[in-house]
Amino acid sequence: MRWREETNFNNIASFLGQLFGADSKEINERFVNLEEMFILKFVDDDEVIHGTIISIRDNKEPSIVELIYTAFEMDFDFETHNPFQRLINYSKTEYIDFIYTNTYVSENSFVNVDLDYLSNYLITRERVTMNLDEKKYKSLWYDETGEKLDLLKYDYLKINQSIKLSKKKKSAKFKIFGLQDITPEQIATLQRKVYSTTEFEDNLHILSKEKSDYNLLHTSRLLNNYYGELEEDISLLALTDKGKLAGYILGMKSFIKSGFIIDFAVDPDFQGYGLGKVLFRNAIIKYFEKFNCENVGVEVTLSNEKTINLFLSNGFEIVKRGNEGILIIN
Fold it and tell me: Is the whole model's pTM more than 0.70, yes or no?
């Protein structure tokens, strides 16, 4: 068996349709409009497909591939035909620097995959999905009469609003801005500083190679709604009086009455002032009260204990654990 690059997605849709007993036309409609899609098929000598890897190659950094879907036949022999080693060899010939997956390794994006073999090639980190539902929100944030509990001074921030927060004998001034007042470089710089303190050195959000700065690429995609449209009322940025980005929170537009916080960080130099709590509370309040959400979700790296504890103390519950990873091509 060997890898072949596939340019006709109808062939892949037919394979997936037979594999899952599904309508190949519906599968084709799901994937066909993805831009820069990069497809590999695993075929025998008769060109019969036995497995496929569907990914997105970045049009600006073609050495970066995002793995979005992998499927093999139920009886695929991973011991004899190890597709992940072959993927590495193929990637070298295609000048791919690294492949990453932005989903849980054990989930449906890896259908019928021998995860033990996959784990030998992926650098993984454990992430948790956390959720706050409307009932829990109201039980913690309201009393029995419906009055809001523990209302803080800056629970309803406005764009261009100035705030002053204290930390022991120190205080700092911040000004709140919207998405239009920030550049990807500013967020990428803060991300590198924040995430460089975690145990996972090659964090998905900070991985930087000689040829490619994935951190900046990821941030540029994020701000350009590549992963979904950002909600401007939820996405808040806090700059110091000297114009330095001190912290931010980015939230997705709510659909089907569900909100999602996609990114949240505070500069270590400004932690302890309560800035993270201010940004967090504003996002949560707006999701539930302005957009009438029934729940709000977030994904957090397990090693990020401070953020996890912040969410837990405000009613969030851990609903799922899993690993995500990066395949480094040396």
Answer: yes
